[in-house]
Amino acid sequence: SKVVDVEVDAISEELVVLKWQPPLDSGDGTPNGISIVQYLVEAIPLDGSQSLASIVQADNRLVTFSVVPGTAYSMQIRSITVNSPEPQPSPASFFFKYEGSPLNYFVPLQFTISTSTISGVVGATSSFLITPAASPYVDAVVHITSSHPEAATATSRVVFKAGFSSSQTVIVAHHQVGESELAFSAEGGNYEGLVSTILLAQTLPNQL
């Protein structure tokens, strides 16, 4: 059957986020259901201009579209199951026309890091994971800076893609003996910043 609880929010002058929940009687582990593997999501302009389409994995249920303000769209969501590579013939459809002000998600970018201290000897590299607490609505960029780059530096830029909450690996290069604090700052999207987090990177002497 069709997906339920469809929501659409405008997050910029030309960008909308479409969210939904799986059908009540099929997929996602429901009793006697048919597992859904993907969704085909379409934004079809009613003026006949170019349609937009995106295929997302079953556990995401979130997609962003760039739309033209003042243009009416037919939004359609179809399930793709393990039994058939073709989308279901009867989509969940609704009409959307954006003419107002966007909803802004001005909230700190919540994330966790896999450790608070990381160590390595001179000339070596080490790594840690940075993970968003929830999938960002728009692409979020995190910059990582070192207080003492002569001691240690890290991957300078990490990108969290809209709709995904996958962890990203950050590589730390250890240059000379000493300690450096790694600080994180956000850029782009509709994020005002992120939760204050400092990681201590230690560079130790080689044991010869």
Cα-atom radius of gyration: 22 Å
Oligomer: single chain
Mean of residue pLDDT values: 80
- The number of distinct β-strands equals 16
- Share of helix, binned: under 10%
Task: Give structural notes.
- There is one protein chain.
- The chain has 208 residues and is mainly beta.
- Helices cover 0% and strands 50% of the residues.
- The protein is built from no helices and 16 strands.
- It has strands at 4-10, 15-21, 36-45, 52-57, 62-66, 72-81, 92-97, 111-113, 117-121, 125-132, 140-146, 152-154, 157-160, 168-174, 178-187, 198-204.
- The strands form four sheets. It has a five-stranded mixed β-sheet with strand order 9-16-15-11-13, with no helix packed on it. A four-stranded antiparallel β-sheet has the order 4-3-6-7, with no helix packed on it. It has a four-stranded antiparallel β-sheet with strand order 8-10-14-12, with no helix packed on it.
In short:
The protein has 208 residues and is mostly beta strands.
